[in-house]
Amino acid sequence: MRFLDFFAGAGLVELGMGPGWRCVWANDHDPNKAEVYRANFDPAVYHLGDVAQVDAAGLPAGVDLAWASFPCQDLSLAGWRRGMSAGRSGAFWAFWRIMRDLHARDRRPPMIVIENVVGLLHGPDFAGLCEALGGLGLNVGAFVIDAKRFVPQSRPRVFLVAVDERFDTAPFETGAPDRSSWHPLAVHAAFARLPENLMARWRWWSLPAPTAAVPNVSSIIETEPTAVRWKSDAETARLVEMMSSVNRAKLERAQNIGGQQVGLLYRRVRNGVQRAEVRFDGLAGCLRTPSGGSSRQTVVIVEGERVRTRLLSPREAARLMGVDDGFVLPASYNQAYKAMGDAVAVPAVAWLADHLLTPLVQGLRDDKTPGASADHQDLRAFREAAEVQASAWHAARAARIGK
Predict the structure, then answer these.
(1) Taking the CB of the first residue and of the last residue of the chain, which one, N or C, has fewer CB atoms within 10 A?
(2) Measuring CA to CA, which residue among 207, 195, 210 is closest to residue 382?
């Protein structure tokens, strides 16, 4: 099975898709991530550059799926939530235009997967995204998959799976979505805000729950990391001083347990004051990119009264993403951390691929006589609305470049 990987970064989607899939074309604009990708995968398939400059006519034919993990900064609940009209997350519209052009050539992949932060589910952007995919003749459904179900990292992400409307996908759907599993309240709320014509295109995809135990975060910690240094006692004391009473109590409980306890710490601004927030629940916080000191996670090792701290190492960050130690990381700390912090958790992709994407593609291939593509008023309206959004984003982008 063949797929296209847009906004590919370091290529962790390719790791997750597994040996039954082959990436035949990948793209990203970040040269540092390109180096990581080319060190681990076939460099011939990687195309470095702006997705807005990609010509659909030059893409490989006969692919089964297009994956797009477009930039999330403008959609994150932790960010400004400027939405898909903003400069970075708005790059979706460049991807959409490529899919539109492929659709016009009858070469649009029968399946598209979108991965992003859960902020995508909130506000009007989600309906606009579903509308844009509907305009390409696709039906769509969404999951929230948290990496903590596979690796010791809290990392919820939304995955939209869109499939050609001409195919019968009923065998892959569930009639009773579980709000406590893959379809939490945020997904149901996003669905409830859709207009009726988009609700008709919604599919509640079926996905089994994993049963394997998730290892404790202590299992990924390097005993003697070489890429990071231990902080001095004074630096560690300053971190402890930055803790609120609640977080200081967590540290004291860890000290009283005895033995070695491993915690992870982030520095955050609360009510205008920088605080050190620590957790000892066996999980790491969500990896982020190293844009500043507070964006990098700190390892806290407690052995009785002794407390040691240091930054999370690049290899530990890779392990939190489900990447094995044979994966080549760049020598630069920031580049390695960014490559992982911007990526998708490998086992989350693998679970989705094994239990839905691969069976879906096999089912689509077996269905040799798909139904006729709908050419109704709704589909045309969806496409026209998406054209307006895409044109607005490209015009704004051209104006920024011109300045």
Answers:
(1) C
(2) 195
